[in-house]
Design goal:
Layout (H helix, E strand, L loop, with lengths): L19 H15 L11 E6 L5 H12 L3 E4 L13 H11 L2 E5 L3 H10 L4 E3 L7 H15 L6 E5 L4 H13 L2 E5 L8 H10 L6 E4 L2 H5 L4 E4 L11 H7 L7 H4 L7 E4 L11 H4 L6 H20 L1
Parallel strand pairs: 1-2, 1-3, 3-4, 5-6, 5-8, 6-7, 8-9
Helix pairs in contact: 1-5, 1-12, 2-12, 3-4, 5-6, 5-12, 6-7
The structure holds phosphoric acid mono(formamide)ester and norvaline (NVA).
């Protein structure tokens, strides 16, 4: 039986804002939403969406999730609101939290998200910052759970940039006690505070491995995951990063080293034939589009918990 909801009115800025029990509760609820076993009414509740970076999945899945729950969303486009003019976050946050019941924010500096949370009287959700993408990690672990039915023997290998997506996977993986391996070129390791925190959470330290060798990292793995090499805001580093990440593409040759039952994940959007080949995205092992769908079910679950 899921534990009683302790998430009401809390912020979700980091994977660490949930306990292991709370993650499992959100995943269970998401599964119930997906299978139409539950109906929660958030009539008259309003989610404000602030996106300082582009988005397809996160924006639309939040909008549809809210609409399925009977609530509504307001798109607070920074270029048509006063946010783009540079109104202080502390002013915007205090005003918006008098209109909206919850606010999801996608921005660059994680400290800006924390500033919103400091001044908002309503829950704030991280819709991606340069440091973390915790909503994505919840959908990823729902997808993994659907495949393997529990997390007992899961070995998750992330191949690519130790960026926001990898950071949230590490933290959520540590909460769930899953073996997480990160294979990245030298200099692209995940955030050192995130690594430190994960080691603190894991009872067995050797469950998190950071390596520069993708082949050894995929041996024995049953989930292979990647993300773009150049994230939003790093467009000017593309040429250098394409060179630095040579050899870190998820392709036919690399997955030969993984378990036979290994599934492939990617948060999307992808650059085909850079971090992953077109063939692998379209292969039988790919769960990439199930993973994208799960964003919506997980966000329905999250919104229900934060707003109830
Ligand atoms: N995975 C993800 O967050 O996609 P969007 O950038 O399209 O929201
Ligand atoms: N690391 C990517 C994730 C996109 C969903 C970025 O920040 O652009």
């Amino acid at each position: 039986m899921p534990k009683p909801n302790k998430l009401a009115n809390k912020n979700f800025l980091s994977s660490l804002d949930l306990s292991k029990e709370e993650v499992l509760h959100v995943l269970d609820l998401a599964n119930n939403f997906k299978n139409k076993k539950i109906n929660i009414d958030l009539k008259n509740k309003v989610l404000g969406l602030i996106f300082n970076k582009s988005s397809t999945r996160t924006r639309v899945s939040f909008q549809v999730a809210m609409s399925r729950l009977g609530g509504s969303t307001i798109d607070l486009n920074p270029t048509t609101s006063q946010i783009g003019r540079g109104e202080p976050i502390k002013d915007t946050a205090r005003v918006l939290s008098r209109y909206c019941d919850v606010i999801a924010i996608r921005t660059f500096h994680h400290s800006d998200l924390e500033e919103y949370a400091k001044w908002s009287t309503k829950p704030v959700i991280n819709a991606l910052t340069d440091l973390e993408h915790p909503c994505q990690a919840l959908a990823d672990f729902l997808t993994i759970h659907e495949e393997f039915l529990d997390f007992k023997d899961v070995v998750l290998t992330f191949i690519g940039d130790g960026n926001n997506v990898a950071n949230s996977l590490i933290l959520c993986g540590a909460l769930l006690g899953i073996e997480v391996r990160i294979a990245c070129p030298k200099g692209y390791e995940p955030n050192s505070l995130v690594i430190e925190k994960a080691y603190e959470i894991y009872k067995k330290k050797d469950l998190l491995k950071i390596t520069n060798d993708p082949i050894s990292a995929v041996r024995g793995a049953n989930v292979l995951y990647t993300d773009v090499w150049s994230s939003m805001g790093e467009e000017n580093q593309k040429e250098k990063k394409d060179k630095d990440f040579f050899g870190f593409t998820i392709d036919h040759n690399l997955i030969k080293n993984a378990n036979k039952d290994a599934i492939i994940l990617h948060c999307l959007p992808a650059y085909r034939d850079k971090e992953i080949t077109d063939e692998i995205i379209e292969s039988k092992s790919s769960r990439i589009f199930e993973q994208a769908e799960n964003r919506m079910h997980v966000q329905q679950a999250l919104l229900s918990c934060l707003l109830k």
